[in-house]
Amino acid sequence: MPKILIIDDDVRLVENLTKYMQDFGFEIDSALNGVQGLEKAAAFAPDLIVLDLMMPGLDGVEVCREIRRSSTIPVIMLTARTDEADVVAGLEVGADDYITKPFSLRELVARIKARLRHDRFERMSQANKDVITHGILTVDSVRREVYKQDVHDPQVQHRIVLTGTEFNLLWLLASNPGVVFSREKLLEDLRSRELESFDRSIDAHISHLRRKIEDSPKTPRYIITVWGAGYKFQGD
Q1: E-assigned strands of 34-82?
Q2: How far does Cα 219 stand from its chain's mean position?
Q3: Which of 68, 84, 93, 203 has the fewest CB atoms found within 10 Å of its own CB?
Q4: β-sheet bridge partners, residue 231
């Protein structure tokens, strides 16, 4: 059940919005001023905020600016003004969308649903960037783990234990399939990531990595030598 926080000083509007949106399955909390809104945003942990631009005291622009200091939560701004400068001000401090009062409750719900879908897609896309799969090889940058599918039983995944340097080297190559990296470029990029001392050559690390992830290290499937240039990861 998506959680929506409404921040608006119009008591009647908040009541109407709450009732209408609850009928669509949303969990609703509300605040009647900016200060209370920031407190509710921290305590309620909403999936989206509907925020009035014009409120006494701490207005919507300031509330949105404060929210953006620590959160990327979607914000839909409500404004009674049609002046372009007001709309731009809201968008510039981080609002994702705006709707002008008076508005259709149905339109607002449609925009909320669209924004939640977009936010969910963005989060899924980001999560997918953390895991790379090529053929039977999977590299997870969050857990820093590598798995290889059993050729006889696709349901079985064998974990491959790599050193920190080996994992960083594999991730760099696998996240850029087809890109040829010179030995100098690999050294440069790895040094910026390394915590351990880097006292072996790139060729030695490549050799050790191949022995761990390739079926046949002498005829590699994944890490390919480009003679005179360096190495590349052969993607699907």
Answers
A1: 48-52, 75-79
A2: 37
A3: 84
A4: 181, 225
Give the other-Cβ count within 10 Å of 177's Cβ. Answer: 14
Instruction: For residue 85, name the pLDDT band (cuts at 50, 70, 90).
Output: confident
pLDDT at 198: 44
The count of C-alpha atoms lying within 13 angstroms of the C-alpha of 24, restricted to the half-sphere facing its C-beta, is 17
The DSSP call for residue 223 is E
pLDDT at 62: 93
Q: For 181, which DSSP code?
A: B
Q: What's the mean pLDDT in 188-203?
A: 59
CATH code of 3-129, in short, is 3.40.50.2300
Model confidence at 154, pLDDT cuts 50, 70, 90, reads confident
Structure-token pair, residue 81 = 């003004």
d(CA 73, CA 41): 10
Does residue 102 have a cis bond before it (omega within 30 degrees)? yes
98-110-37 Cα angle (round to 5):
50
Query: Does 3-129 match 132-233 in CATH topology?
Result: no
Q: Has residue 124 got a pLDDT over 70?
A: no
Residue 19 burial (10 A CB sphere; 0-12, 13-18, 19+): exposed
Q: What is the pTM of this model?
A: 0.56
Fold designation for 132-233: Arc Repressor Mutant, subunit A (1.10.10)
Cα dihedral 143, 149, 150, 152, rounded to 10, equals 160
